[in-house]
Amino acid sequence: MITLPRIPLAHLPTPVHPLPRLSAELGGPRLWIKRDDLTGLAFGGNKTRKLEFLLAEAQAHGARTLITRGAIQSNHCRQTAAAAANQGFECILVLTGNPPKTAIGNTLLDQLLGAEIIWTEGEDPEETLTNTFDAAWSDGRRPYLIPYGGSNPIGAASYTAAMGEFMEQDTPVDRIVFATSSGGTQAGLLVGAQIHRFSGQITGISVDPSAGEIVPTITSLATETAELLGLPETFSEGQVDVNDSYLGEGYAVMGKPEKEALEMFARLEGLFLDPVYTGRAAAGMIDLIHSGEISSKERVLFWHTGGTPALFAYAEELSLTNPTTS
Ligand SMILES: Cc1ncc(COP(=O)(O)O)c(C=O)c1O
């Protein structure tokens, strides 16, 4: 159905399976998980899907160098570096902050993948990105800019396709819950829901922006994605369900709810979440179940979007609650 050029990077379809022990522990809603942590590229994650389309565009433009930006533990940057290595592009990552003494988690993997890292060191990240791009251009490196989080209509279209993939997996659910941040995943799923007639609720748990900031972005991105795909659908803010009640102490600050969610998934299902994105989204889902906002009769899909390498950057905070070491 989606005819945009695409470079295969992901192992698709990703599995869908039930979470019986977690469902029982939470007292009701039947839970399933879609394993986009198993997309296969450099420890997987949702960005692999977006990069399949974005790299095809980069290639069509005759690009030689991929440039993008993100936080120090950015999964998007790690996956971009891996896709670049896999397809023979050079890769420049603009990472927020100062170089760490020891690279851990995603940053370690960025280095291993051969990415050139520019640290913003107190500068405005967007400005550093623009300067980096201009310098690469003047040096004849034929740069291609991948937007923050891979979230433009080309990247988001991959989640329109992913919704089609899920619908073919024949697991009827009333609601999909996942982590939302730059909005491309949610925008793509919304378009996919229209095309593939998914009538359930699509609930993005924000890990960073307030709903007031991100809902307009997702709304326009969904409309632009539909337009790119030649579809007549337009979207309004009322169709975009973002819950921003779980921002805790801010982006990438792992609190008690995230730790508890990580432990529940690990100890009941043998599954790893990450402290920043999927841990927060799962904590939100668990709270919505406890409060009854998600009823015990609902069938719910938790869409795992990856991020697990960041776990290793949180070893100290995590070991505090580990009963075997405390
Ligand atoms: C693991 C993980 N989950 C979810 C997201 C959010 O996806 P999006 O930026 O498309 O909203 C990200 C974004 O970086 C991510 O790394």
Question: What brief labels describe this structure?
Answer:
326 residues, alpha/beta, Rossmann fold, 2 domains, six-stranded mixed sheet, four-stranded parallel sheet, 11 helices, 42% helix, 15% strand, binds pyridoxal-5'-phosphate
> What's the SSE pattern?
EHEHEHEHEHEHEHEHEHHEH
Task: Please count the helical segments.
Answer: 11
CATH fold-level assignment of the largest domain: Rossmann fold
Bound molecules: pyridoxal-5'-phosphate
CATH architecture level-2 label of the largest domain: 3-Layer(aba) Sandwich
From the helix content, strand content and strand pairing, which structural class follows?
A: alpha/beta
Strand content: 15-25%
Mean pLDDT over the residues: 96
Distance between the termini: 53 Å
Helix % is 40-55%
Number of domains: 2
Q: Could you describe the largest sheet, including whether it forms a barrel?
A: 6 strands, mixed
- State Rg: 19 Å
